[in-house]
Each structure stands twice: as C-alpha cells, then as structure tokens.
Amino acid sequence: MKARGLKGRPPEVIEGLYKILSEGMDAYVVGGSVRDLLLTGSLEKIREYDLLVRMDPSCVCERLVGRLGGSYFLLDRERRIFRIVTAPEFRVVAPFPQGHEFIEKRGIQIDLSPLSGDLTGDLGKRDFTINAMALPIEGLWKGDIHVIDPFGGSEDLRKGLVRAIRREAFREDPLRLLRAYRISSLLGFRVEEETERWIEEESSLLPTVARERIRDEVFLILSSRSSSRWILEASKKGLLFMFPTMGSLPALDGMDRFLSDLRAFGNLYPFLMEHLNLQIGGLPRYGYLKLSALLHDLGMDRADPVGKELILSNRARRLISCVLKAPSLIRRMGRGERAKVAFFSEYGEDGIDALLFTFPLDPALQPLIKECLFYYPTFLKERPGPILKGEEIMEAFHIPPGREVGEMLKALRMAEMEGRVRTKEEALSFLEDLRKGLTKGGEGV
To answer: Does residue 21 sit in the same domain as residue 154?
Structure first.
C-alpha cells in the first residue's frame, strides 16, 4: 500500500535515522506511529516511535542520541529493546478536550528492537493488525512511502476495527486483552467480533499481569472523551476485576458529558482546563474526576482499597478522598466569603476538583459551586490567613505542640466552612466548647 498526501517534512528523528544508517540497511518504523501516520497523513505530532533495525540497537541509540540529544536505556534485556527519550523541548497539544489547545513540553520517545528474522515474522508477533504495519526509513525520508501490511491493517483502519492478529497474542501478553479497548477508546474504533470472543474466553489471564500495567491502561481509557462506553465494554468482558462494582457507570457517563461542556463556565474555562490537564502520577486531574465517579457508589471505606489495588500514589488517593467526600461537605458549607476562604485554605487546588465533581451530582448546589469557583482567583491573590494560628491556640489553652493542636485547627477550619465561626472570639469560644466536650466524653477532635 502506498500512503499519499503526507503533510510536512519528515521529523528530525527520521532524518537522523536515515543519515546514521548505511544505505540499504533494513530499518523500519512500525506499530502505532505507522497507524497514526495513515490516519492523519502527518508525522509532525507523533511523539512515540517503534523502530526495527537489523543491527545492534545499542549502537543506533548511541549515534541517534548524539544527533537528537537525550538519553537511552535498556528497556527489555531478554528481547534487547532499548528506549531513547529526548529532552522535553517539543510543543504538543494536550489531548483533552477537543477544540481547546493546551501546550506542554514533552520529548520524543523511541523504542528500538533488533530485526531478528524476516519482517513479516516480526510483525506477526505484534498484537493487532493496525499495529502490524511497517514503513522503511529510507522510503519515509525520500517521500517514496510504501506501507508493508501483511495482515490487512490498513483495511481494518478504513473499517475502524481493532482486530487481533491471532488468539495466542493474548496468551503471550494478557494486557492486550484490556489494550484492545484502550486503542478503541483512543481512535473511536470497535473491537472486531472474533477478537471480542477471544478476549472474553481469555479474560481470566488478566489478573496475572502486574497491577501497574493494568492501572496504566485503565488510566488511558479514562483519558478518552467517552470513557464510560469503553469502561462498560471492558467490564462486560470481565476485565475490570479490580473494581468491585460497576454501579457507578451512570455517574461516569455524566462526568464525561460534564467535562465536555465546561465552556459553560465562560471566562473561567481556560483556567479550569489548564487545571484539569495537570498530571498527578501519570493521570490528568480530569482522569481522577472520572475515576472518582467510577468509585462513587463504594464510599471511601471501599474506594481506598481499590486505590491501593491500582497502586495509586498517596497524593492521588488524597485527591480521590477529597473529591468523594465533597458533596456532603459542600452541602454543609456556609455562604459567606469566610466559608470560601476556609474551604480553599483546607483543600487548596484540590478544592477545584471537589467542586467540579459535585457540580453534575447536585443541581441545587450549582449556584454555590459557581460562586466558589469564580472566587478562587481572588483567594489566590489574597490568601488570607486562618482566624487562629496554632501558636495562638497553644497560648490560649496552655497546651504543647502536637496532634491535639492540629486536630483543633482542622475542626476550626470545618466550622469556618460551615459558617459557624466568623471572628477570633467565636473561634476561641468554639474551641473552648469543643474541649469541654472532650472532658464530658465527646468524640473529640
């Protein structure tokens, strides 16, 4: 197959490969970069390359890093796969949402593997037909572009199908069971019927995969605009065993739709989108809103073990905890400026996520949530301090530094949020009553 109508000149990585390889030496771009080239007609935005070379890939790495900068390391010792990561100086458009651009700095990632036998044999070891095509580097550089496509990947691209090359591909790497739906979510494709049947029959293999790898695939599905559709499809095939229930799929669908319509926030829209595209542990903040929606019906006692099972960072689990308890917290929140100050003093930028999560769940709270969101820039400018500082509490109640002071500050901030405390005198009275409650067998702070 010949790819026509390519836009722009070949990127520096292709130029570098062509110039460091001997004339006529076998070297090919394969996998997702070929797929994306055929879909878009351009290599300009491709930032991940999978290469096959008929020579020692470590030698290619040394010479290519010499031209492009960056560094390389051995990714898979057994299969002699190396990875190059260039310096983060390329500007790319963040993927979400469509129609709004956010520029970030990101390097190019290049995986190099040795071409062990004939090219068709190597391509046949890959997962799906649309990832089993190759482009010779020499032809790509010269513009004489003929796609090597032994398994009909280009036809499946035209039909919008994710088709496994063979059933054994899932047994060789069971993560491919979930990856079929991740690729579908990325491209808006559907999984071919026989491939779906194989996935369902081999689904019991997925729990043998490292949790971190499963988590990363789930993260990528959640990053898509219609994540609820693909989470549902994967769930039907028994691939989301880490989640004890799929009862929150309507909440996830609602979050998908809400995040696609943030322009309703007017002038605040650019700020919200910049915030939501920030990454924590490999997932953008909007992805954690979707994950929280998926965990919504569990409650924190059952949701946190799922976070541990997914090997989420402590930072990510704190964010999910804040988001899941947000609806009840915001319902009790006072209406004055002090309440907003106390809320953002307690939760900082995570408060934005908490407010956004609650917005589609409780229409009655939407006016208050909008007030809080529009107030946040003012809060960042002024950042007023708390009514009482820890030192003032210790002096007023003659107590030493320690956990009790921290718990009293936390209880005071909650009272501020609920509008029960507005002045220093009210704060001291509140804490005095709280301590009396402690001596009378209350729950404590």
So the answer is: yes
In terms of pTM, does the model score above 0.90?
no
What is the side-by-side order of every strand in the sheet holding 71-76? 71-76, 81-85, 109-114, 48-53, 27-30, 134-136
Residue type, 401: P
Owning domain of residue 423: 390-439
CA dihedral over 183, 188, 191, 192, signed as positive or negative: negative
Our CA dihedral for 123, 128, 129, 130, rounded to 10 degrees, sits at: -110
**Residues 362, 331 share a domain:** yes
Confirm whether 444 is domain-assigned.
Answer: no
Report the candidate in 270, 184, 167 with the shortest Cα–Cα distance to residue 226: 184
Q: Is 344 within a domain?
A: yes
pLDDT tens sequence across 326-373: 888 898 888 888 888 888 888 888 999 999 999 998 899 999 999 999
Distance CA 29, CA 299 (A): 47
Is the bond into 97 cis (omega within 30 degrees of 0)?
Answer: yes
Residue 102, number of CB atoms within 10 A of its CB: 16
Q: For residue 422, what is the enclosing H or E element?
A: none
Compute CA 405 distance to the chain's CA centroid, rounded to the nearest angstrom. Answer: 37
> What single-letter DSSP state applies at residue 74?
E
